[in-house]
Design brief:
Elements (H helix, E strand, L loop, with lengths): L2 H6 L3 H10 L5 H7 L2 H9 L18 H11 L5 H16 L3 H4 L20 E2 L3 E6 L11 E6 L7 H15 L17 H8 L1
Antiparallel strand pairs: 1-2, 2-3
Helix pairs in contact: 2-4, 5-6, 6-8
């Protein structure tokens, strides 16, 4: 096996990632990683610092943010506003992924087997619950039971969900989806993100 064959198939980005991740080696190998040859290789592939740069991310949502949204959306009776408000509070309380509340933007990736059904929702006085559909890693093929309970200093989650389901029952009596927009479709990622902004 020749070195030229192997090196031709390696991308510069891969080299930087590989070299940057090898800092936990023995002291001898750490010295070699700090050598001018290695540093030159990392510079050529765009690495600015030895350990990388800090991750830049948006601030997480807080209960105070939910209260601000509550103040803005509570007077609204628009179905899409009720949907967004219910999804936001449900997702926040149980740390649900956006993919568990919406469909992907790419239509070819949408799958009705992943739609949460309205019939799985149970509303109680202090909590509500529903079933997320099964997924490929689910060995029992039951799905996941999601229980949403009130959290302190947050909007009343059961009341929010009750208003949303009442709107669903009024406009979409025969639709099986739990999360449904005013036009009768399942919300997409981009729709939720646009509402969030």
């Amino acid at each position: 096996m020749s070195l030229s064959k192997d090196s031709s198939s390696i991308q510069n980005r891969s080299t930087c990632t590989y070299l940057g991740s090898r800092t936990n080696w023995s002291p001898i190998s750490q010295k070699s990683v700090k050598s001018p040859l290695i540093f030159g290789s990392m510079d050529s592939c765009g690495a600015k610092q030895y350990r990388g740069t800090p991750t830049i991310h948006k601030s997480p949502l807080t209960v105070a943010d939910l209260l601000v949204v509550s103040h803005d959306l509570v007077p609204s009776t628009e179905h899409d506003d009720l949907l967004f408000y219910a999804q936001l509070n449900t997702g926040f309380t149980r740390l649900l992924c956006l993919g568990e509340l919406t469909w992907p933007n790419q239509i070819s990736l949408c799958d009705y087997r992943k739609v949460t059904l309205r019939s799985s929702l149970e509303l109680h006085v202090r909590e509500y619950l529903f079933w997320l559909p099964t997924h490929k890693a689910d060995t029992t093929f039951e799905g996941n039971r999601i229980v949403i309970q009130k959290i302190s200093n947050a909007p009343n989650l059961c009341s929010i969900m009750e208003h949303y389901t009442r709107s669903c029952d009024t406009h979409f009596t025969f639709h099986p989806q739990l999360w449904i927009k005013a036009n009768g479709t399942v919300p997409l990622h981009s729709w939720f993100i646009a509402c969030l902004q």
